[in-house]
């Protein structure tokens, strides 16, 4: 064993002791060479600052170390990214930090225990006032920052324009008693910030009414964000609503992603088919509605949101509450200002004006001339049950319009589209006489293309399924042997 002439025998160091000495030496070196240093624990609380860091305290608004140490770092150091280092475990080796104390060149490193778990972070001020000693780099950074700020502003303005309401209360067509009552209620609730619940069968115009309420409210200049709960897989709903923190899971965007609540901040969030929301997510939605706070997936940071919620459903929520498939407390929270949107069969007085407005839109989108309806066509349409309501009416009008060049659509034009005994047996005017042709000509002229025949059969099957299930789309999709999302796509097409 080697012997020192001054200090006696020297004991060999094991690897762990050597590493501890190296870590202590490195820490001491950082503390002496950096202009300032701090250590933050897992809960973001400052547990230690170096002597050099104390000289920044007055500029940060703290006269004494005791008022600084023990506080959460984001509360006392504006614009710090220490919390991000703790949450992601990723170092930020070189960065510029700017706040009321000045501009600093800083470095931030995560601290881990023996098992590799992040237990805190260490931050170092490498240089203060870098704008004087690093002028070219700072100038370039400033230009990039300005460009980034301008791009963000333009993007925000673009998104706001894109998320403006597409309809007004006047867009809800109809002068019947039922339609006028809906419009009266919509104008009334638009003057409040309370939650609105739109109740009605599929295709009655609930989404249009949600747009209209937002457009008539004080939030009209802010975003209108809609999400169809039935069209989003259950596993993605939480991320869709609340967003995702940077690096929250494998494959997640390293910059994170805002959820619908954050996108709708200051405006309105429309939750379509709220009755299809899974029970576990209902509790989280209730908390957001009560607290106006969201917590993105993979984050411990709570974000305040200012959002007015409009929900809609074609299901009987009260019955679902009794059956235990919908939370009673969420139902009461949503059912503050309920509006029942009547089905088409209860407002047949509006059929002609609705058909005329839909025909205008069909003509505009297809580039074809506007086609009006004959009296016998209106009488025929008024005899239909319309389980799909206005959406189904539009589909029927569009099919009939595109299958003929005639500018006036009579009952005969709807016979094949509707495929009902009423349509076929109704007294119809005879079609114009055709020139004589071979014996095979009438038979060939009556043959439909295969895609057309399949589409008509599919539409008829969907109508019958919806009629058999009382408009319950989930039950109808099961009856048809297709997914709920597929049924929604076919209803919207």
What does this structure look like?
- A hairpin with a 3-residue loop joins strand 1 (3-4) and strand 2.
- Strands 4-3-7-6-5 form a five-stranded antiparallel beta sheet, sandwiched between helices.
- The protein contains 21 helices and 16 strands.
- It has 493 residues and is α/β, with parallel strands linked by helices.
- Mean pLDDT is 81; it is low at 1-8 and 422-445.
How much strand content do the residues show? 15-25%
Order of the strands making up the biggest sheet = 4-3-7-6-5
- CA radius of gyration is 33 Å
Major β-sheet annotation = 5 strands, antiparallel
The first-to-last residue Cα distance is 88 Å
Instruction: Please state the structural category.
Output: alpha/beta
Give the strand tally: 16
Q: Which terms summarize this structure?
A:
alpha/beta, 493 residues, elongated, 5-stranded antiparallel β-sheet, 15% strand, 5-stranded parallel β-sheet, single chain, disordered N terminus
Secondary structure elements and pairings:
Blueprint lengths: L2 E2 L3 E2 L5 H19 L2 E6 L4 E4 L23 H4 L5 H7 L3 E8 L2 E11 L5 E11 L1 H4 L1 H28 L14 H14 L5 E4 L6 H10 L8 E5 L5 H9 L17 H4 L4 E5 L6 H13 L1 E2 L8 E2 L3 E6 L3 H7 L4 H7 L2 E4 L10 H16 L5 E2 L1 H8 L6 H14 L5 E2 L1 H8 L2 H5 L15 H5 L4 H19 L4 H8 L3 H9 L1
Parallel strand pairs: 8-13, 8-14, 9-10, 10-13, 15-16
Antiparallel strand pairs: 1-2, 3-4, 3-7, 5-6, 6-7, 11-12
Helix pairs in contact: 6-7, 13-15, 14-16, 15-16, 19-20, 20-21
Quick structural gist:
With 493 residues, the protein is of the alpha/beta class. It has 21 helices and 16 strands. Helix content is 44%, strand content 15%.
């Amino acid at each position: 064993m080697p012997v020192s002439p001054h200090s006696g025998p020297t004991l060999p160091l094991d690897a762990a002791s050597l590493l501890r000495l190296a870590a202590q030496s490195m820490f001491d070196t950082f503390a002496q060479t950096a202009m300032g240093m701090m250590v933050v624990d897992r809960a973001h609380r400052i547990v230690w600052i170096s002597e050099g860091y104390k000289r920044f305290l007055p500029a940060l608004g703290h006269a004494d170390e005791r008022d600084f140490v023990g506080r959460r770092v984001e509360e006392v150091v504006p614009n710090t990214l220490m919390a991000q280092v703790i949450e992601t475990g990723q170092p930020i080796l070189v960065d510029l930090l700017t706040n009321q104390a000045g501009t600093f060149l800083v470095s931030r490193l995560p601290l881990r225990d023996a098992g590799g778990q992040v237990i805190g972070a260490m931050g170092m001020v490498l240089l203060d006032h870098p704008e004087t000693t690093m002028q070219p780099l700072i100038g370039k950074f400033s230009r990039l920052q300005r460009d980034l700020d301008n791009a963000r502003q333009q993007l925000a303005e673009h998104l706001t324009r894109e998320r403006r309401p597409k309809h007004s209360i006047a867009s809800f067509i109809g002068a019947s008693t039922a339609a006028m009552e809906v419009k009266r209620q919509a104008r009334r609730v638009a003057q409040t910030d309370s939650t609105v619940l739109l109740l009605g069968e599929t295709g009655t115009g609930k989404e249009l009414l949600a747009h209209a309420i937002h457009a008539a409210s004080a939030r009209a200049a802010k975003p209108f964000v809609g999400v169809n709960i039935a069209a989003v897989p259950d596993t993605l709903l939480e991320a869709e609503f609340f967003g995702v923190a940077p690096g929250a899971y494998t494959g997640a965007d390293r910059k994170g992603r805002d959820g619908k609540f954050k996108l709708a901040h200051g405006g309105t969030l429309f939750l379509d088919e709220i009755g299809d929301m899974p029970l576990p997510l209902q509790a989280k939605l209730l908390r957001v509605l009560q607290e106006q706070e969201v917590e993105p997936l993979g984050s411990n940071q709570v974000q305040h949101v200012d959002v007015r919620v409009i929900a809609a459903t074609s299901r009987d929520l009260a019955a679902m509450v009794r059956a235990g498939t919908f939370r009673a407390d969420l139902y009461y929270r949503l059912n503050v200002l309920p509006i029942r949107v009547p089905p088409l069969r209860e407002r047949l007085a509006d059929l002609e004006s609705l058909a005329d407005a839909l025909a205008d839109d069909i003509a505009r989108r297809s580039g074809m001339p506007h086609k009006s309806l004959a009296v016998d066509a209106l009488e025929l349409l008024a005899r239909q049950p319309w389980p799909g309501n206005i959406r189904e009416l539009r589909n029927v009008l569009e099919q009939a319009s595109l299958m003929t060049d005639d500018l006036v659509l009579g009952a005969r034009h709807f016979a094949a589209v509707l495929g009902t005994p009423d349509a076929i047996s109704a007294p119809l005017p005879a079609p114009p006489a055709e020139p004589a042709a071979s014996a095979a000509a009438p038979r060939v002229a009556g043959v439909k293309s295969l895609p057309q025949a399949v589409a008509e059969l599919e539409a008829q099957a969907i109508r019958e399924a919806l009629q058999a299930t009382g408009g319950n789309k989930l039950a109808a999709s099961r009856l048809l042997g297709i997914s709920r999302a597929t049924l929604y796509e076919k209803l919207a097409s």
